[in-house]
Amino acid sequence: MENRRLRFGTRYHTAFTRGCATGSIRLSEGELSTTKNHTGDIWLNELNIGDATFDPSVAQAVYGPAAKLDWHIHPGGQVLLITEGTGYYQERGKPVRIVHKGDVIKSAAGVEHWHGAAPDSTFAYIAVTPTQKGKTIWLKPVTEEEYKSAK
User: Fold this and answer.
1) How far apart (Å, rounded) are the C-alpha atoms in residues 34 and 13?
2) Which residues of 124-135 are buried (b: 16+ CB within 10 A; e: fewer)?
3) 90-123 confidence digits (pLDDT tens)
4) Could you tell me if 87 and 121 are in contact, meaning their C-beta atoms sit under 8 angstroms apart?
5) Positive or negative, the Cα torsion across 41, 136, 129, 92?
6) CA angle 143-146-148, nearest 5°?
7) What does the radius of gyration of the chain's CA atoms come to, in whole angstroms?
8) Whole-prediction pTM value?
9) Please, are residues 117 and 67 in contact by the beta-carbon 8 Å criterion?
10) Which helix (H) or strand (E) holds 16?
11) Whether pLDDT at 17 is above 90
12) Which of 33, 17, 15, 9 is nearest to 104 (CA)?
């Protein structure tokens, strides 16, 4: 990314996006998760914990190959900005979507879904999750049949 002051608007967004796409922005992987709401290795780096002043929780998640979260619901919805690799995203009753670096996923409030890394790829994203409507509701693990249904 260029080291010069840019005006607000499209020029800034374009320059920032190009900088991200070339990998010039690096964040710490965070801590290896020990919670029981996923399979495989997932590192989490909490960038902002939602509060009364700044509602959304912002976090970076980095997945090892084939790692995946259990089915879950975000009462306030969630936006995922895919920053690395290839992954899967599925909403209940819909086919698995294959997602790649640069994709944006918008998960509506209350929608049951899961996401994870493809079998042969790491996967990372920045998650923006509104918190005022409640915390994530964790459901059952993703079955192998569900995971392998990606086409």
Assistant:
1) 36
2) bbbbbbbbeeee
3) 999 999 999 999 999 999 999 999 999 999 999 9
4) yes
5) positive
6) 105
7) 16
8) 0.79
9) yes
10) helix 10-21
11) no
12) 17
φ, ψ at 136 (rounded to 5°): -55, 135
CA 39, 150, 81, 101 dihedral sign is positive
Q: Which two tokens stand for residue 107?
A: 């998960």
Total residues found in the chain within this entry: 151
pLDDT digits (tens, 9 = 90+) for 42-97: 999 989 887 888 889 999 999 999 999 999 999 999 999 999 999 999 999 999 99
pLDDT band at 26 (very low <50, low <70, confident <90, very high): low
Angle at 125 between CA 86 and CA 101, to 5 degrees: 40
Look-up of token digits 């780096």: 45
Report residue 40 as tokens.
């495989």
